[in-house]
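FIELD: query
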Amino acid sequence: MDFNLTSEQRMAVESAQKMAARDIQPVLDAHDPDTPLPKEAMKGLLQICAGQGLTSARVPESAGGAGIPTLLFGLMFEQIPPVVAFAIVGQEATAARIALESTPEQRERLLPDLIAAKRIACTGSTEPDVGSDARGIKTRVTEDGDHLVVNGDKMWITNASICDVINITGTLGQDDQGRNQIVRVVVDRDQSPFTSSKTPCLGFCQGHLGEVHFDNCRVPKENRLGSVGDAARVLTLTWLANRPLFGLMAVNMAQRALDAALAYAGDRMQFGKAIGNYQLVQELLADIETSIETSRLICYRALAAIDAGERANGLSAQAKRYALAACQRAISMAMEVHGSMGISRELGLEQLFRDVRMLPIPDGTNQILTLIQGRELTGVSAFRH
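FIELD: result
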């Protein structure tokens, strides 16, 4: 087992790091950290990331995507400032889902602008009263001649407030057992107008998490994807990688907190010497580093398992659940190293603290992930009997 990066992986990581420092962070720094970026600014950042394949990593080359191995995608993704990485997940996963359940004609028509980030995309599954249980979806899709008519609301959707295209999950009637028939429909805002708004949140304030409302929204039938019943399978396939990717977003933030804590421990003087000389401060630093390293490795392991074709449901859930808890704790400890300065807005640690707290919710809460891991361990599902 070799834990060293290959030359290809090292080059990709270095390239992503340079891109983040040169092209992304200056744009974020030029805007108010507590206000959503203008749409054109976020689109520009996504287009920069598209140049390295990050907006189409899981879209195969045959469909016009980058076709990047999942672990390599994660290694690059880890280097991206988290508020932009969050937007990449919305863009890239939407393109990947469309690629997974579309016809060649649909791929040719729908994917190029999403892959190039000429249009901003998102996936609309979660609703005001529906989260983890996709079969409880209340958004209704009905047929009317050559069109589908969509009515309902989507909530907690990444990129929602600035999206041009949304790939929604809805119900098209019921089967003979009274269960909702789940379908996926791509809704183009120019073609089929809908309304959206930003949801004020604790963290990722420069992002565009929001909600979408459909009121008799007419969508051409050719924008329906796949077959009835495919939606849950496609969501699961993309969630498997999304979860460790969220873990690596937390690793990015915790690493920044550790770097700041190490610098502060070397500079801050108390009782005639730098606080890094004191054993309890060293213990905090050691615990932070351990949290980061274990989180990083467990996320890499989950992504490598996906590349190897292994059943990664449990590993993926474990990676997100562990990494987010460990990295939240790591950032909190880094704030302790800084003392009173840790809670000031001046150093940005409090922003990391707020941002990382956003991540346990999307693509499976800690509790849902625990049940997924438990099911993989025992073979017994706690969801339905």
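FIELD: remark
The two ends are 40 Å apart (CA to CA).
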